[in-house]
Inverse folding.
């Protein structure tokens, strides 16, 4: 995934969920925030941010806020990036005859992806992670009943004999672990543990793999009955990609 024209700025204020005031290119700009979440720990007055300049001159806002500097940590906060990056990584690995469907309706939910293959259906939900706490990634940053509902639907699918997976896309580098944010939303962590088979194994276990350039990847290794989770992170202000695209590096054991 490649952004086009990226310019630095300084965050000033966020009047509502959709727009922010940012000082950039010598003026105060009203920019579109590509993440309607709270992001309170990220969007603080004076924070260094990165904007993508739109090529559409008719847009009401000329910029999208896509990333923010949290101390030494660069965090991509584009809510559309996780699905785009995940699809870019997954599509080249699909088996012959398989089709990747987006926004797949299942039960009472619309899940991010479904792989239709001769072996059957494989349902996938992707969650982007922007919350960092002491070098660890946490999800969610705010209560998410929708997230709990997605886990329940995945577990129902697995119990019905379908493939099901929940992937966490960590939108920052250097995380040593990734786990549910129990303090913010205990029900989300409880749903993950239930999906894991009533506590079989350690649902917060993670390991770290090192890339050839020294970047550390926080990679979920725990296998859950029916629902599997992974996390990946890589990128700078302009480019964000799944590190498993790198030949010879960490690979997932997909069911095909």
């Amino acid at each position: 995934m490649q952004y086009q024209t990226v310019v630095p700025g300084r965050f000033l204020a966020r009047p509502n969920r959709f727009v922010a005031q940012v000082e950039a290119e010598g003026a105060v700009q009203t920019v579109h925030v590509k993440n309607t979440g709270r992001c309170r720990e990220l969007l603080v007055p004076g924070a260094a941010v990165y904007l993508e300049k739109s090529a559409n001159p008719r847009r009401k806002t000329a910029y999208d806020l896509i990333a923010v500097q949290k101390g030494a940590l660069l965090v991509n906060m584009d809510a559309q990036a996780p699905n785009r990056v995940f699809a870019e990584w997954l599509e080249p690995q699909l088996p012959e005859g398989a089709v990747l469907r987006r926004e797949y309706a299942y039960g009472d939910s619309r899940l991010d992806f479904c792989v239709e293959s001769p072996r059957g259906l494989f349902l996938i939900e992707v969650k982007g992670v922007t919350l960092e706490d002491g070098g660890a990634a946490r999800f969610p940053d705010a209560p998410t009943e929708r997230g709990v509902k997605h886990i329940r639907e995945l577990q129902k699918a697995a119990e019905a004999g379908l493939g099901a997976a929940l992937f966490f896309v960590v939108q920052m580098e250097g995380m040593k672990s990734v786990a549910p944010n129990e303090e913010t939303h205990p029900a989300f962590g409880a749903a993950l543990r239930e999906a894991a088979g009533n506590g079989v194994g350690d649902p917060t276990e993670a390991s770290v793999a090192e890339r050839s350039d020294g970047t550390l990847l926080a990679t979920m290794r725990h296998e859950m009955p029916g629902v599997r989770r992974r996390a990946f992170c890589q990128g700078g202000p302009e480019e964000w990609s799944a590190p498993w695209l790198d030949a010879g590096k960490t690979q997932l054991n997909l069911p095909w």
